[in-house]
TrEMBL record:
The keyword Methyltransferase does not apply. MCR is composed of three subunits: alpha, beta, and gamma. The function of proteins C and D is not known. Keywords: Methanogenesis. It comes from Methanolobus halotolerans. This is Methyl-coenzyme M reductase operon protein C. The lineage of its organism: Archaea, Methanobacteriati, Methanobacteriota, Stenosarchaea group, Methanomicrobia. InterPro entries: Me_CoM_Rdtase_prot-C, Me_CoM_Rdtase_prot-C-like. The keyword Nucleotidyltransferase does not apply. It holds the Pfam family MCR_C. GO terms for biological process: methanogenesis.
Length: 203
């Protein structure tokens, strides 16, 4: 598993059998895929590799013929405090532009509910894209709506909406740092395909 520290774009081919579409990208680009359908957005990595199981999630989607790229944010590892007071999370205009090139974002976060909601909200405030949320902690549409995030099932009052993007599906129970179960991979693939179909039906 490799990633370019300057562009923060991941190459998950090594040991994963992804084949075509995982080469290291140049500055400002993403890994090469046939179409810009889905982008998997991961929080910032440790010094050696991105947080497991992002590559497994990517591989599971690609195996089901979903075109997916991976973007690792420059910041976003977070700290275990409710208010994220350290300011450790952020997203750049360049990263927003990369996300907006795609049809659907799969946003992978962690196990602190407040952090999951805040990070997703920060991304969707700028990224006008439907999103599938993958996290460890149980979280629901109402949690996001209460924070001003548009969702598929629960909508904040018009005056309270703070995001351009919308949460379409949620896959919880995916543990950071551990392998992802076949059940959760199947749940993610179903969530992404359902979201893609809903977009096609709107066209």
């Amino acid at each position: 598993m490799m990633f370019d520290r300057e562009t923060q774009v991941v190459d998950c081919r090594h040991g994963m059998g992804l084949g075509r579409g995982g080469g290291l990208a140049q500055r400002g680009t993403l890994s090469e895929t046939g179409r810009t359908d889905v982008i998997a957005v991961a929080m910032s990595p440790g010094r050696r590799h991105i947080t497991k199981p992002v590559c497994e999630l990517t591989y599971g989607m690609r195996r089901e013929e979903i075109q997916v790229s991976v973007l690792v944010l420059n910041t976003g590892s977070g700290v275990p405090d409710t208010n994220m007071g350290s300011g450790s999370f952020g997203i750049s205009p360049e990263e927003i532009a990369q996300i907006n090139r795609h049809k659907v974002a799969v946003i992978h976060t962690g196990n602190i509910r407040e952090h999951v909601v805040r990070k997703v909200k920060a991304i969707l405030e700028e990224a006008s894209i439907p999103a599938v949320i993958v996290c460890q902690t149980p979280v629901d549409f109402e949690d996001f709506a209460m924070a001003g995030v548009k969702t598929r099932l629960v909508k904040p009052q018009e005056s309270d909406i703070l995001t351009k993007g919308r949460v379409m599906e949620i896959v919880s129970g995916v543990t950071r740092g551990e392998s992802c179960s076949r059940e959760k991979l199947n749940e993610l693939v179903k969530a992404v395909k359902t979201t893609m179909r809903s977009l096609e039906n709107q066209e």
